[in-house]
Amino acid sequence: SFAPFGWEDVELSLRAWKQGFEMHYEPRSSVWHQFSSTIAPRFSRREVRAIYERNRLLAHWLHLETPAQAATHAAFLLAKCLAAACIGRVEIWSAVAQAVKRRDDVRAKRRQLRATEQRALSDVLDQIADELTRPGVKFLDRSSAPVRAHSRSCSGAL
Are 50 and 91 in contact (CB under 8 A)? Predict the structure, then answer.
């Protein structure tokens, strides 16, 4: 479980792709998300970072498939933990501890997912890379994304 938040969208997308679902890109669609409007009032920044990192680890542990992928992940995680210790960012250590507590659940979920997967992670990642090179696909970040005032209503066509 990725409760309360973070990475559930990525994990669900990876799971769907690996299960054989098709994904379609619609360049005319828009999604507006007021980042942290629900989370920020209830959690400190450190809590948010720790939960986000925990959920990122859980997503990796669910979907990494090969010894090479696992080794690369472990090396980067070790480097991240060491760097975090040097700069006083203890959230990653909390995230690892929280994720390790869920390892039995992760193992069970991995077994369940493996039984029905139709595509390998490498195939999914290749497909994503191909899709990102299509004409009209735009990468937006904080500096390039259009800004729209937050509204609690869901009026208008989606």
Answer: yes
